[in-house]
Amino acid sequence: MRGYVVTRPFPESNVGSNLASLAGAILLAQKLERELIVDWRGMAQLQDKSVNYFAEFFENRSSLLGVPASYAPVAGAEYDRDAGAPWLSANEAAAAVRGNLKLSDAEYVVLQQYHGPDRLMAGPESARFAFLRQFYREVMPAPDLREAIDGWAEEHLGGRFVVGINLRTGNGQYFGRGMRYEGRVNLSVFQDEAKLVRVLDRAVRKLVRRLPRPVRSAVATFYATDSEAMSRVLATLPGAVTRRRIYPPPTTGDLYSFEGSSSDDRASVVDTLADMFLLARCDALIYNNSLFNQYARVLNGNFGGNLIHVDTLFLGRRVQLLTSAARRRLRF
């Protein structure tokens, strides 16, 4: 081994993008024949900035996809900017993967800007999917979290066919007009809550209509969202269940650290991760744009096609999507 690749996400990032970035860091470590350091300290969701989010809540494997892995803090490891370690942009990391950027003199190479395989890995989408799927198969919750997830799933899902619903709203941040990620999530489908529930109920029935009658009659609907308000809406679906109980206050996004509370920050992170792992146990999925549900989609091979993007359930949005696709084809 010739040194280390350090994955060090921005404090304001969240678990879906950070897991994808971890996969990209592993890819670079493989190409450079380096070891990996996973450093998820300083995350905005946790009050104690010394806690390594990954090391605390995920299984700490000694290697990931064959790359030796350590978890910060690592004794003697110095890779702050003022220590002279190169902090690569995503474009520089992609060049290093291709062999177009030489880093042999640097003991530590740090990645912070989002560095998922979609940015670092050239070639067909099928290859990126296969790499991510191999990676996600090695991502496991810490033992105590796994025990909690297993217990809840046994009590509330009990081996039934499960339709998962994951709707990210931004909880009043990110996607609204004038915000940083305006338009990335289509918020218009949430405006008429009664209509949303009717549309989702029809979609669930569509996903299970070909199941044998005894299986269909006992289907469970598990939902996960980032907003307490949306949770109340989804709770009105027939037979719907959710695990999450702690949400950030309205309009605060999903990075709230519950200052002033001794444990709500950690409990909220546990709720978030339990939702991610439980979605991967579902048999079908209704979802919107989010790297949070990428873990479930990739791990399950897109649920064998038994999944629906929520935007396609609304006629106006379907027309917009078809129009955009037609314009892209015409440009080429």
State the main characteristics:
Rossmann fold; 332 residues; single chain
Which helices and strands, and how do they pair?
Blueprint: E1 4-7, H1 15-32, E2 35-38, H2 53-57, E3 63-64, E4 67-71, E5 87-88, H3 90-98, E6 108-111, H4 117-120, H5 125-136, H6 143-156, E7 162-167, H7 193-208, H8 213-216, E8 220-225, H9 228-234, E9 240-241, H10 264-279, E10 284-287, H11 294-299, E11 307-309, H12 315-331
Parallel strand pairs: 1-2, 1-6, 2-4, 5-6, 7-8, 7-10, 8-9, 10-11
Antiparallel strand pairs: 3-4
What does this structure look like?
By secondary structure, the chain is an alpha/beta fold. It has 2 domains: 4-136, Rossmann fold, CATH 3.40.50; 144-328, Rossmann fold (3-Layer(aba) Sandwich), CATH 3.40.50. It has helices at residues 15-32, 53-57, 90-98, 117-120, 125-136, 143-156, 193-208, 213-216, 228-234, 264-279, 294-299, 315-331, and strands spanning 4-7, 35-38, 63-64, 67-71, 87-88, 108-111, 162-167, 220-225, 240-241, 284-287, 307-309. The strands form 2 sheets. The chain has a 6-stranded mixed sheet. β10 (284-287), α11 (294-299) and β11 (307-309) form a beta-alpha-beta unit. α1 runs parallel beside α3 (90-98). The radius of gyration is 21 Å and the shape is globular.
Task: Please write the CATH class name of the largest domain.
Answer: Alpha Beta
Indicate the overall shape: globular
Helix content: 25-40%
Cα radius of gyration in angstroms: 21 Å
Strand order of the largest sheet: 3-4-2-1-6-5
How far apart lie the N and C ends? 44 Å
Largest sheet: 6 strands, mixed
The helix-strand sequence is EHEHEEEHEHHHEHHEHEHEHEH
Stretches with pLDDT under 50, minimum 5 residues: none
SS-based class: alpha/beta
